[in-house]
Write a structure and sequence with these properties.
The protein is of the alpha/beta class and 242 residues long. It has a single domain, classed as Rossmann fold (3-Layer(aba) Sandwich), CATH 3.40.50. It is built from 6 helices and 10 strands; from the N terminus they run E-E-E-H-E-E-H-E-H-H-H-E-H-E-E-E. The strands form 2 sheets. Strands 6-7-8-3-9-10 form a 6-stranded mixed beta sheet. Helix 3 packs parallel to helix 5, helix 4 packs antiparallel against helix 5 and helix 5 runs parallel beside helix 6. It binds adenosine-5'-diphosphate and magnesium ion (MG). The site of adenosine-5'-diphosphate (ADP) has 12 residues, from strand 2 and helix 1.
Length: 242
């Protein structure tokens, strides 16, 4: 019998609910930090799967392992046990330089205090990220300007961090995290330095960007007032996720 042509795979975007594919998967992740008597179990057999377009919030008190969870999910820290799959590649199995390359390609990271370079303008923060990754193309420049627009920073794109408010800096941090079109977006306590109104703006912006760019987004926070923006809320306590 002659081989027949297979039907083309279904397009990702359809009128119906889009198919959900897991792009971030932590399996049995355990992380110990410190040594000897100071040794703590920051993450204890953590399992987590996040699909494209999904916005997951993880709550937990200070010291519960929230930043550790993001550091491991983002390949910044290698767990003692377990695996971390990002876009079907196990980060824990990669050598340092390959892990860095994979991270730059697939993961966007929003830090607690935005972590912007003091001497660079808002636009330059985005362009530098692309430059470091060797991807400062005309297309990425366009995307940078689109993102600055999306986060409401076009009019302030030429300002340095000291000329911006905390909320504006956080907006730039979010735009920067998205500039290389990552599938995974990791966000560490984005509202901790903001007043209520700004906190609401930022979390709504994260939800909107998650939908627009179909990122698998994990936001860790101890701010319970912003949890309604998430599709799913998990709790972390002493390194255990439930
Ligand atoms: P959270 O972000 O929820 O506040 P972390 O992930 O920062 O929690 O920390 C989890 C636990 O690991 C805490 O008990 C913290 O004190 C400990 N810890 C964090 N970093 C280190 C480190 N470099 N060495 C030793 N212990 C650490
Ligand atoms: Mg933390």
């Amino acid at each position: 019998m002659k081989p027949t042509n297979r039907p083309a795979p279904a397009p990702e975007h359809t009128a119906e609910a889009p198919p959900r594919s897991t792009v971030l998967r932590l399996t049995g992740v355990t992380l110990h930090l410190g040594h000897d008597r100071q040794r703590v179990t920051a993450l204890d057999h953590v399992d987590l799967a996040v699909a494209r377009g999904e916005f997951v919030a993880v709550t937990g008190p200070s010291g519960s392992g929230k930043s550790s969870l993001l550091a491991v999910a983002g390949g910044l820290q290698t767990p003692g046990d377990g695996s971390v799959h990002v876009a079907d590649v196990d980060l824990t199995a990669l050598k340092e330089h390959r892990r860095t390359a994979h991270r730059r390609r697939h993961i966007g990271y929003v830090f607690q205090q935005a972590n912007l370079f003091a001497s660079l303008t808002a636009r330059e923060q985005l362009l530098l990220t692309a430059h470091v990754a060797g991807r400062l193309t005309a297309e990425v420049r366009r995307r940078a300007d689109e993102l600055l627009e999306a986060v409401g920073m076009t009019a302030r794109a030429d300002r340095r961090p000291d000329q911006l408010s905390g909320g504006e800096r956080q907006r730039v941090g979010i735009a920067r995290a998205l500039v290389l079109a990552p599938e995974v977006l990791l966000v560490d306590e984005p509202t901790s330095a903001l007043d209520r109104a700004r906190a609401r703006d930022i979390v709504d912006l994260l939800a909107e960007q998650t939908r627009t760019h179909r990122t698998a987004t994990v936001m860790v926070t101890h701010d319970h007032e912003i949890l309604d923006a998430a599709d799913r809320v998990l709790n972390l306590r002493d390194g255990r996720l439930s």
